[in-house]
Protein: Anti-sigma factor
Organism: Frankia casuarinae
Amino acid sequence: MSCGGPHEIDCRKVLDAVFLYLDGECEGGQQNLIRAHLDECSPCLREFGVEHEVKMLVARKCGGERAPESLRASLLARLRAARVEIDAAEYRPE
């Protein structure tokens, strides 16, 4: 997804990181970049709102239970590895 406007951080990267942003788990200045992007990009802000509502619904229905830290770390590592594979496949010259 892209709104077509120039941004300091690409729309796709913002939407890929939206759950990290919602959880306050963005690294370094990434949180400020995402907030600035959402302030100026209405398509991403709209998508952010949908993601936020889904997160709140899950939180209400799951009673706030947290997965064990080891499971969380394992899932994050696998998601990052999958993202690297996807990015590598997208940028591979044909």
User: Anything to note?
Assistant: The helical segments are 11-16, 18-22, 30-40, 42-61, 69-90. The first helix runs from residue 11 to 16. The two ends are 23 Å apart (CA to CA).
